[in-house]
Write a structure and sequence with these properties.
Blueprint lengths: L1 H39 L6 E6 L7 E6 L8 E6 L13 H9 L3 E5 L4 H4 L3 H22 L5 E7 L1 H11 L13 E4 L12 H4 L19 E6 L7 H13 L4 E6 L13 H17 L11 E2 L1
Helix pairs in contact: 4-5
Length: about 300
């Protein structure tokens, strides 16, 4: 009996200890990110909220930036890039800081990556879906009062944002963002696109360019002319397919810009103004398909 009590005590101590250790690692990451932000002069998140506890490792969290001044009734959740291999939510902290200072709610979400969790791109899609649903159902308690919930991301994060709408399978069901904001998004996972060897077992439906649905939301795509990972030609093919489905689509290709251009000058501020204008057009009901059926070039 004494051994039984010792075993139970050990299990309780181990579980509690593991939980505190996991949360401790989350706080370490947050503190590291905050230190990085201080160096950049960027405001830290208003709050960090855990939205999921996967079995492979530490909890997944949302970094919340609440709108300042007169809130405009819209929130956007971003997913960082990193090829589904790595990356960090702090990538979008400067963008969230800019949007929050202009009246928009903004969230940067973590998700499982191969290097940290040993998981596949499918797990990342699942986490993005769970993050969006969590925000959707907890907006008030999170401090957001938004009629419009957008999604966005860069590179692989752009794939995750798009997959919120396009991917259905493995117990994942699509959701309905008010609109998408995509930076050089990975939207072609075929043998001619990005990441084929890692996702080919998931079939064509994992590739957003082959899974466009009729109720696809208004979409803003910002990319670079010199991007060799997601070539401009791929962006144009995708935007034309969206327009063929009568989707309100705005595209801007930055001359001389490479992959990840949107994170730094001289492109950052212009990209943020494009996002703000897009959000206002969607909220105001003026982001519509052009009469020619072609994507809007901005």
């Amino acid at each position: 009996m004494r051994h039984g009590r010792l075993l139970v005590s050990f299990i309780i101590v181990f579980v509690v200890g593991f939980s505190f250790a996991s949360m401790g690692r989350v706080h370490e990451k947050v503190n590291e990110a905050r230190s990085h932000l201080r160096e950049l002069g960027v405001k830290r998140p208003d709050e960090i909220v855990v939205f999921k506890k996967p079995p492979e490792g530490e909890p997944l969290y949302l970094s919340l930036f609440r709108p300042e001044g007169g809130a405009k009734g819209a929130t956007i959740i971003f997913f960082h890039g990193g090829g589904w291999l790595g990356g960090n939510p702090k990538q979008f902290f400067p963008h969230c800081n800019w949007l929050a200072s202009n009246g928009y709610g903004c969230i940067s979400a973590s998700y499982r990556t191969a290097h940290e969790y040993g998981t596949s791109p499918l797990h990342a899609v699942e986490d993005a879906n769970d993050a969006f649903r969590y925000v959707q159902s907890h907006q008030e308690s999170l401090g957001f009062d938004s009629s419009y919930l957008f999604a966005g991301g860069g590179s692989a994060g752009g794939h995750l944002a798009t997959s919120l709408v396009t991917y259905s399978g493995h117990n994942i069901s699509p959701v309905s963002p008010a609109g998408l904001v995509l930076f050089n998004p990975v939207i072609d996972n075929s043998s001619d696109g990005y990441g084929y060897e890692r996702v080919k077992f998931l079939g064509d439906e994992f590739s957003p360019i082959k899974s466009i649905v009729s109720d696809f939301p208004p979409t803003l795509i910002l990319s670079g002319s010199d991007d060799v990972i997601v070539p401009a030609e791929t962006i144009y093919r995708f935007s034309e397919k969206l327009s063929d489905k009568n989707v309100a689509t705005s595209v801007k290709i930055y001359s001389g810009a490479k992959h990840g251009f949107f994170n730094k000058d001289p492109f950052f501020v212009d990209a943020m103004h494009e996002i703000s204008d897009f959000l206002e057009r969607v909220i105001g009901g003026t982001e519509t398909r052009m009469a020619t059926g072609q994507p809007r070039a901005i």
